[in-house]
Structure to design on (482 residues):
């Protein structure tokens, strides 16, 4: 009875929960996660969100090339066509062009038709053709804060019927 | 410098590091921070809407998106984005964690796969997403502390958190390993594909010039570094050292005081100079490596020591 009375006099202890246990799958889970990250890096796999972590891993060189496009209307007027614009373009235009340059004719025609037909939606004007230019320049050749524009060469002309070479 | 898991056996050393006891609140801080970050990113990004409904001719799927015929339509994307934000908010609050954790993760991966299916691998939210995976394995333990209790959903009151335990420690430690490996691989891939030329040539100058030229107006920070040869080489070499060396702050705690600010500074610098938004990765580093219960206890102690304003006024 005495011990019971003492117990009743003590202030109540704050409740403490049972500690959680490490689940049985924790070790294999950790091992698989680390192994997957390692394998993706070694074999350059990209099963997002796992990745090979190739960020800026290739050397950037002085000489640069890039692609740009223009629309041509019925009167022959040529206007910029920002196909790669983030807000109202097609994401990944530079990467599409990497594919385009080595793609078979059918695939080039498919992409060309798409770019011509998309002009009213993307830039609000009809186009009878889309011209694709390759620009090449040197980053170290600069005037003030910007690189000199370099050379622009017409490489492809896209029409609703398909692609033709620029020359 | 004290190394955790002092032993000659590397497997035991890793085990000792991973399965160390942590406070339940430390794991809860990861839940709140990482799912909160996810909710903010999902709610504020217009990128998903920008790629939704892109023509099938431009669909370049990665990962599980190979199962889809084309880019998801705008309507479906909006629904998924709203559902993902709601799930991430519930997960951050610790509400229905067994459902909200996987729902937030799966829906956010779906949205990010859309961005990755336009020809380029997008890394901006990748590390923060990888850090969520350990939480997926421990929804109950991660919601023991600092969780919102919604009474109609519970038959029994949620038990309070137990003492520090490896059950709370291993997801935190695995998230640390994920971040350490991420930086290690980023650094090693530079050495693998470019070697030391990455730092000893004009590589970084060209990167910064190209980035400045691509921006709407010249970027003075990028040009400041690019126009000074020595500065570009120093920054490039420092980047390699920090990326490859970051993993050392796992066993050597004191290095975290140097390397965590260093990588956060790296991401802030990249954002300012190049406009590339890797801030979610910087946020993930802070969320995972800062011991939040200790920080909160420190702030509370300082606040308790401070005399009330009335006392100061009358003394």
């Amino acid at each position: 009875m005495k011990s019971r009375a003492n117990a009743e006099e003590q202030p109540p202890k704050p409740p403490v929960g049972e500690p959680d246990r490490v689940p049985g799958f924790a070790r294999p889970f950790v091992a698989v996660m680390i192994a997957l990250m390692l394998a993706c890096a070694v074999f350059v796999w990209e099963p997002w969100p796992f990745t090979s972590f190739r960020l800026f891993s290739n050397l950037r060189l002085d000489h640069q090339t890039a692609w740009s496009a223009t629309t041509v209307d019925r009167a022959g007027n040529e206007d910029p066509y920002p196909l790669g614009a983030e807000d109202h373009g097609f994401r990944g235009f530079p990467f599409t062009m990497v594919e385009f340059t080595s793609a078979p004719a059918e695939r080039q025609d498919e992409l060309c038709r798409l770019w011509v037909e998309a002009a009213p939606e993307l830039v609000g004007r009809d186009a009878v053709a889309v011209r694709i230019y390759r620009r090449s320049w040197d980053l170290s050749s600069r005037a003030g804060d910007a690189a000199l524009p370099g050379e622009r060469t017409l490489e492809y002309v896209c029409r609703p019927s398909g692609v033709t070479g620029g020359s | 410098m004290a190394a955790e898991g002092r032993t000659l056996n590397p497997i035991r050393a890793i085990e000792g590091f991973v399965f160390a006891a942590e406070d339940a609140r430390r794991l809860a801080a990861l839940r709140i921070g990482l799912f909160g970050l996810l909710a903010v990113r999902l709610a504020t990004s217009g990128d998903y809407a920008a790629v939704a409904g892109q023509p099938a001719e431009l669909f370049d799927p990665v990962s599980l998106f190979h199962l889809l015929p084309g880019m998801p339509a705008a309507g479906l994307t909006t629904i998924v984005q709203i559902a993902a934000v709601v799930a991430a908010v519930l997960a951050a609050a610790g509400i229905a964690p067994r459902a909200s954790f996987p729902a937030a993760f799966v829906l956010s991966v779906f949205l990010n796969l859309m961005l990755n299916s336009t020809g380029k691998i997008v890394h901006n939210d990748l590390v923060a997403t990888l850090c969520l995976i350990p939480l997926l394995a421990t929804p109950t333990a991660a919601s023991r502390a600092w969780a919102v209790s919604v009474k109609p959903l519970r038959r029994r009151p949620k038990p309070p958190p137990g003492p520090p335990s490896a059950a709370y420690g291993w997801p935190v430690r695995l998230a640390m390993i994920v971040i350490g490996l991420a930086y290690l691989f980023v650094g090693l891939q530079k050495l693998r594909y470019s070697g030391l030329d990455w730092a000893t040539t004009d590589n970084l100058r060209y990167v910064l010039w190209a980035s400045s030229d691509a921006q709407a107006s010249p970027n003075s920070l990028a040009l400041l570094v690019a126009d000074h040869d020595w500065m570009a080489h120093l920054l490039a070499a420092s980047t390699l050292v920090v990326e490859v060396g970051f993993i050392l702050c796992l066993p050597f705690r004191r290095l975290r005081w140097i390397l965590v600010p260093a990588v956060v500074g790296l991401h802030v610098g990249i954002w300012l100079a190049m406009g590339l938004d890797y801030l979610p990765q910087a946020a993930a580093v802070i969320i995972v490596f800062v011991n939040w219960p200790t920080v909160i206890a420190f702030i509370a102690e300082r606040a308790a020591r401070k005399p009330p304003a009335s006392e100061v006024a009358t003394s």
Q: What stands out?
A: DSSP finds 15 helices and no strands in chain B. The CA atoms of residues 124 and 278 of chain B lie 5 Å apart. Chain B has a mean pLDDT of 93. Chain B touches chain A through 71 residues (CB under 8 Å).
